[in-house]
Write a structure and sequence with these properties.
The longest helix is centred in the middle third of the chain and has 15 residues, at 169-183. Strand 8, helix 12 and strand 9 (278-280) form a beta-alpha-beta unit. The strands form 2 sheets. This protein has a 6-stranded parallel beta sheet with strand order 5-4-6-7-8-9, sandwiched between helices. The protein has a 3-stranded parallel beta sheet with strand order 1-2-3. It is of the alpha/beta class and 294 residues long. It contains 12 helices and 9 strands.
């Protein structure tokens, strides 16, 4: 597996990064290309419509070929580099994403709230972002005053696989969350049966029974953020049962739900799922590697 530094260096050598995925929750390659100031051409998946200019998205092979030829002739894709870089720098930086996670978690730590009826201020995209997606949110949120915040060291358990190296989007997100939480003074556990003050689930790819027992036996009335990607059945063309398991878990234990992009949230709604208190918290790339050198 290549290191992040090697991936960044290779990305900077490209004329165009061509993303041909049939489905994606991300993809992270779009963020990496934008931060490396490399032109990109992508299928309309994941965060593409939220991040890219319309000329950088294609729907079929013929259109992709035409856009690549036009880029050679007129620098069409190169002209979008600065817009992509600015958009990622503003919305997908470590600072912006960690702030969203912090505000999101602090907004649900009111010990008096009922996890099933708690509502929070929406952080779903608005304005230009929604205009690009063509999506008008139908979920109405109201603002709730935060009556309790973290005033001393708290423990949080992350549920999901955390693999060393640049492996898997879910793993990368959990590692980034763990790093930031530890930097802020939290005691962070992974897949641990401990009496934590809060839990963050990554989809349903962990020992659900162990997590369920830890939460139900806790004396801390822990809150649960459920990070959901997918829908998995949309990606695989089957496995509706897996999606149903994820959203059953969501309704059983989640205080709130975090999607990484409008695409995953929108498609989940289309399939009839109703996530608990959903919000969008975008992914980010490590600025030590994926940032254009001056």
């Amino acid at each position: 597996i290549l290191s992040l530094n090697q991936i960044a260096e290779l990305t900077r050598t490209l004329d165009v990064n061509l993303v041909t995925s049939r489905w994606e929750g991300g993809p992270r390659a779009l963020l990496e290309s934008a931060l490396c100031k490399t032109a990109v051409l992508s299928t309309d998946v994941g965060i593409a419509r939220e991040l890219l200019e319309p000329e950088s998205i294609f729907t079929n092979i013929s259109q992709a070929i035409e856009l690549l030829i036009k880029d050679q002739q007129t620098q069409l894709l190169q002209k979008n580099i600065e817009a992509h870089f600015l958009r990622v720098s503003q919305n997908h930086s470590y600072e912006a994403v960690s702030k969203h996670w912090s505000n999101f978690y602090r907004s649900i730590v009111d010990e008096k709230s009922n996890p099933k009826t708690h509502v929070m201020k929406s952080t779903l995209p608005s304005g230009a972002a929604l205009a690009r997606t063509g999506l008008i949110p139908k979920i109405l949120f109201r603002t709730r005053k935060i009556t309790q915040a973290f005033t001393k060291k708290k423990s949080i358990t992350l549920w999901g696989e955390m693999v060393s190296g640049p492996y898997g989007g879910g793993s990368q997100v959990l590692k980034a969350i763990a790093t930031e939480l530890e930097r802020r003074g939290f005691d962070v556990q992974n897949n641990s049966y401990s009496d934590a003050h809060g839990h963050i689930f990554n989809s349903a790819f962990f020992d659900i029974d162990r997590a369920r027992t830890a939460i139900r036996e806790s004396k801390n009335n822990p809150k649960v953020i459920h990070r959901i990607d997918g829908p998995i059945s949309l990606y695989r063309g089957n496995d509706r049962a897996m999606d149903e398991q994820i959203f059953t878990l969501n309704h059983e234990l989640a205080t709130a739900t975090a999607f990484q992009c409008v695409y995953s949230w929108r498609e989940s709604i289309k399939m009839g799922f109703e996530p608990v208190n959903p919000t969008i918290i975008r992914n980010a790339c490590d600025p030590k590697y994926f940032f254009q050198s001056s």
